Amino acid sequence: MSIVPKETIEVIAQSIGITNLLPEAALMLAPDVEYRVREIMQEAIKCMRHSKRTTLTASDVDGALNLRNVEPIYGFASGGPFRFRKAIGHRDLFYTDDREVDFKDVIEAPLPKAPLDTEIVCHWLAIEGVQPAIPENAPLEVIRAPAENKIHEQKDGPLIDIRLPVKHVLSRELQLYFQKIAELTMSKSNPALFKEALVSLASDSGLHPLVPYFTNFIADEVSRGLNDFLLLFNLMHIVRSLLRNPHIHIEPYLHQLMPSVVTCLVSRKLGNRFADNHWELRDFTANLVALICKRYGTVYTTLQSRLTKTLVNALLDPKKALTQHYGAIQGLAALGHNVVRLLILSNLEPYLRLLEPELVAEKQKNQMKSYEAWRVYGALLRAAGLCIHDRLKIFPPLPSPLPSFIHKGKGKIIKTEPHKRKLSVDSSENRSPQKRLITTDGLQSQDHTSPAPMQVDNPIENDNPPQNSVHPSSSEQASDASESESRKTKGKEAGKGRAITMKAILKQIWKDDLDSGRLLVKLHELYGERILPFIPSTEMSVFL
Amino acid sequence: MEGEQLNGIQLNEFLIGYLKKRGFNSAAKGLEEDLHHNKGSDNNVSSFTSIDYHNDPELTKLIRSFSQSEDDPTRYRECYSKLRSWAYNSLDLYKHELLRVMYPVFIHCYMDLVGKGHTQEARVFFNSFRKDHEMIHLRDLQKLEGVLAPSHLEEMEFARSLRKSKVNIKICQYSYDLLLQYLHRTESTLMLGIINEHINFQVYSGQPTSASDDIEAVTIVGSFQDTANHINQKEIQWGLLEDSLEDRLEKTGGLLSDSEKGQGESKDGDADDSKKRSTEIGKQGSSIKKLKKDKAGNATAKVARLETSTVPPAPRVKSELALPVMSTDVEQSILEDLRNRVQLSSVAMPSVSFYTFVNSHNGLNCASISHDGSLVSGGFSDSSIKIWDMAKIGQAGALQGENDTNDPNVGPTGRRSYTLLLGHSGPVYSANFSPPGDFVLSSSADTTIRLWSTKLNSNLVCYKGHNYPVWDVQFSPFGHYFASCSHDRTARIWTMDQIQPLRIMAGHLSDVDCVQWHPNCNYIATGSSDKTVRLWDVQTGECVRIFIGHRSMVLSLAMSPDGRYMASGDEDGTIMMWDLSTARCITPLMGHNSCVWSLSYSGEGSLLASGSADCTVKLWDVTSSTKLTKAEEKNGNSNRLRSLRTFPTKSTPVQALRFSRRNLLFAAGAISKPAS
C-alpha cells in the first residue's frame, strides 16, 4: 500500500532498539513515513529553488528539516551532488559510494590546497544583439539556411532564429575505421586487403556516420589525384561499395559525390602512364553512373537530365579530347537504350563524319590518336547496337518469318561476298576516305582471322579484343582497320541494295513502330553488318 | 420482503445519512426538520409518509443497493472507469469539456477512499488512472500521492482546501445535459454524489469553447476562483506617478534640445533623436494644446514617445506613499542616464554584459546588480554576502592595491577583489541594491533581513519579523521602502527607519517566493508556490488581483516601466505576460526549458529579458506580444515569433538580469562545471 514496505519499518525499529514492534503497528506507520518523507522533499525542493540550483543537495534536506523544526541529520553535508551507483543485479536500486576512511590516512595526508576565492569575470555576452566570438561565450557557429531565412524575413521582419549546429560525435572505432580505409585507398599496396575493405564497406551496418567523411574524402582525392590512375580506380570502387551497402542512406550526399564520379568518367586525362587502362576506369564509372541514376532517378528527377546534359555537351564539343567523348558515350550508353536513341543516334551521322578523319591511318599519324578514335568508334557501335538490340526485344515475338525470305537473304549475303570485291574499287558512294583506304591498302585479306568485336555477344568483352589486337603493331592495326572498313562498305553495298525492299517489309510487319524500323535501317546504313550481331536471331532472320 | 421489515424511523435516518453522504446537505437538513416537525405534531403523518417508502419495493431495493455498495471501495474504481470510458467515447465536440470533469472526480474519489481508510485500494485506484491527468496536473498529483491516511487529509493544506471547496467548471448546456443523462441512466449515484459535492457547474448556452483557451481549467483552486474573480473586479491605478522623472525628462529634454538648437550643434545620435522628438512635439502640440492647457507639454511628449508603440499613454496617478526626497545630484544623474538611453526595439537589440562568478563552489544562492551595473552582489549559502565594485576591478593593479589598504575587510593574506559582509546566520537568499546603490538589503534563512551600507561596508539594521526563512526582499523604485516575502506565507512592507513591518500581506496558500514593486510604488506583486501571483495594495494591505495560470511555483516577477503589464516566470520555464487591469494572461511565452530565475523589462518597455537555469538569456518582443493578441484570437498561436534572440552562455545558469537606465543589459550567474 505504501511505497515503504513494513519490513523497512521493522528494520528501522530494530536499529533504534525497539524489538517488539507489532506488524500492525509497522503497517500503520508505513504510510505515515511515506507522507513525511514526501513532505520533507517538498520543502527541500523549495530550498533548492531558492538557492538557484537544479540539483538537490544534502544541505537542502537539512534546510527542509530545519523548516519543520526537526533536528537536521549531521555528517552528510557535501560540496557537490552525491554520486550514486547502481547496485549490480537490480534495476532501480542505487547507493552512494561511501567508503570507510582510516583516521590515520586522514591525519597523515598533506593539507589540502586552499580553495580558490570567488571572483567575478566580466565579458560581453552580446553586442547590439550579436554574440561576439570570444572564448567566454559558448561556441556558436551560426548556420543559417539562406532560403529559410528569407522566408522568415518576409514574414516577420528581422526575426531570425539562430540554430545551433548539430554536433557530430564520431566514435573512436569509426574514426579508426575511416583512417584505415583511407590509408588502404591511398597506399594501393595491398589489393587483397583493399578488396576485403570494399566488402566490408558494402555490407557493414553502422557506417552511416562516416558517409559525409567518405564523400569528402572522395571529392578531395579525385580532384587532387587525377594523375593517379590506381587511386581513382580505388575511389570509384569505394563509391560502388557505398552504393551497394543497404544500411547506408547515401541520397543526401549524392550531390557531393556526383561531380567526382562524373570526373572519372569524362575527364581528359586519367592517370599519367601509358599503361594505365583508363578505358576500363571509364567503363566502370559509366556503370556506376547508371546505377546511381537507376536507383535515385525517381527521387531526384533532375539527376539524370543534368547528367545527360553534361555528357552530351562533352560528346558534341569537337574540341574535347576523344577520351572525353568515349567517356560520354559510355556513360550515355549505360543509361539505357532510350537515352542512346535520343541523344546518341540523333547525333550519330554528323559525329561519325567528324570521327572519320581520325580513323584513317594515313590522316592520323599519331598512333595514340587513331587508337583512341577506334575506341570511340567501338563504343559508339556498341551503344547503337545495344540500343537496337533492346529496341527489337521489346516487340512481341514475330509471326513466323517467311522462310523464302530467309533463304533469299542468305543467298544474297553469299552472293554479295564475292561481288563485293569487284565493286569495292569503284564503290563510289559518298565516302571517299574509305574508298581510298581500301584501294591503297589493297591487301583485303578476307580470311583474316579478325577478332571481330561485333561478333562477340558480351558487350563488355566487346571492347577488349580490338585493343589487344591493335596494341602490338601499327600494321596490324591498319589491317584491322582496313578490314573492318571493307566490311562496312561491303555491308553498305548489300544494305543499299536491300534497303528498299527491307523498308517495305519492315513497314508491313511493324506498321505500328515505323520508328525502330527506320532506325534499324539507318544504323545499318551507317554501320553495315557490324550492327548485325546485336540483332536477336529471330529479328535478324526477318531483317535479313 | 426485507424492505418491509425496516421501520419508518430507521429508514428516515438512513435516508438522511444517505443524503448527507451524497452531498445533498440542504436536502437532508430539510428532511430532518420535516421529520422533527412531523414527530412533534402527528405521528400518523410520519407513518403515512413512511408507508410510501415501504410500498415502493423498487425504491427500497435501490436504497439497499446503495447501502451495500457504500463501503465497497472497488465500486469507486468501477464507477470511475465507467464514467471515464463514457467520457472518452463521447462526441468530439464536447469531449474536452466532459474530460475536464474527470480530474476533480478523480482526485475526490481518491481522497474519499483515503478518507475511509482504504489505503490499499486508494493507491491502486490512483495508479491506474494517474496517467490521464499527469500531463496537466503532474505537480498536484505528486503532492496528493503522499496522502495515505485520513489524518494526512486534515494536515495537508492542499488536500484540505480541495475537500472544502468546489471546483468551478464552465460547461456548455449540451455537455451538461449529456453528463446528467449519463449519470441518471447508469444510476451511478456514487459519481453523481461526488460531482454534486465538489463541482460547481457554470452552464452557458451555445457551442462549447475550444479546448485550448481555458486556462482556468489548468489549476484547481476551488472557491478560490470565485474570490479571485471577485477580487479582480477591484479597480487599480496602474498608471505612472505624476511628476515622475520620466515626465520631467520629457519636459527638460525639450528645453535642452531647444537650447542645443540655438547652439547649432549636437553631440551624438541621441541628441538628434531628442531634437526630432521635440520638433514633433511642437507640431502635434499645437493641435492638442487647445484641449489640454495645463498638461499640454506633458501629454504631447507622451504622444511623441508612444508613437512607435501605438499604445495610449499611461495615465498619471498620485502616490499613496510619502516618497523620499531625492537629492538633486542623484536626480541629475538619473536624468542624464535617461537622456542617454538607447532606444531598443525588435530591430535594435541591446548589448549584454555578463558577470560570471567563478570558484563559487556551488554556494552562490543569489546575485544582484545595481541599477548602473557597477556593483554586483552575491549571497552565499555560507551566510556571507560579497560585493564587487566592477569599476574598480577594471582599473589597474596599483589602484586596486590602494583600495585594498583602505578596505577594512582585507584579511592578512591580502587582496580580495570584493567586500565581504558577514552577519547572517543562514544561507542568504536575496541581496538587493537600493536604486542609488548606497544600500544593500539581504534576506536569509535565519528569518532576518539586514540592511548594509556599501559606503561603510557594514551592517546598519537587522529587521526581525518573519517567522521562517525570508525568500526575497526588494527595494521600492524610490528606495526607503522595501518589501519582503517568506516561507511563512506572508509578504511584508517595511521602511528603512523602522524595525517593525508597516504592512503584512497574508493570503497566499503556500510560500511567497518572490516580490516585486509596481513602478508607481502603490502596489506590490508576489509570486507563490501556490502557483498564483497576487497584486497587493500597499496602502490598504489588501489583495487587489489574483493571477491564475502558472502550473508550477512562480520564481520571478517583473513590471513593465509603464506599469501596465507584469511578467512572471515559473519553475517549468514558462513566462506569462499579464495585463494588470484585467488580470488576464496576455500570452504565455514558452521557450525556456528550466527555471526562469530572472526577468527584466528594458527602460522603455519594448523588450523583456529572461534568464534561466537552462543557461540562456532570451529576449522577447513585448510590443508584438501585446499587439498580436487581437489577431491571435482568430488564428492560432504563433508563440515562437515573439522570441527575438537567445544568447546561450557557456554552462552558466543566468541568476540575475538588469537593464540599466541607459538600456544596457547586465546578467550574472555562477559558472557550473558539468557533472563529471
TrEMBL record, chain A:
Residues 411-496 are annotated as: Disordered. It is found in: Nucleus. It comes from the Eukaryota. Its main location: nucleus. InterPro entries: ARM-type_fold, Histone-fold, TAF6, TAF6_C, TAF6_C_sf, TAF_TATA-bd_Histone-like_dom. SUPFAM superfamilies: ARM repeat (SSF48371), Histone-fold (SSF47113). Residues 484-496 have a biased composition (Basic and acidic residues). GO terms for cellular component: nucleus. Coiled coil: none annotated. Residues 2-68 form the TATA box binding protein associated factor (TAF) histone-like fold domain. Belongs to the TAF6 family. This is Transcription initiation factor TFIID subunit 6. It comes from Cardamine amara subsp. amara.
UniProtKB/TrEMBL annotation, chain B:
Residues 70-199 form the TFIID subunit TAF5 NTD2 domain. Residues 258-280 have a biased composition (Basic and acidic residues). Its main location: nucleus. Gene3D superfamilies: TFIID subunit TAF5, NTD2 domain (1.25.40.500), YVTN repeat-like/Quinoprotein amine dehydrogenase (2.130.10.10). SMART domains: WD40. Keywords: Nucleus, Repeat, Transcription, Transcription regulation, WD repeat. It comes from the Eukaryota. Residues 253-311 are annotated as: Disordered. It is found in: Nucleus. GO terms for cellular component: nucleus. WD repeats lie at residues 357-390, 421-453, 463-504, 505-546, 547-588, 589-630. It holds the Pfam family WD40. This is Transcription initiation factor TFIID subunit 5. It comes from Cardamine amara subsp. amara.
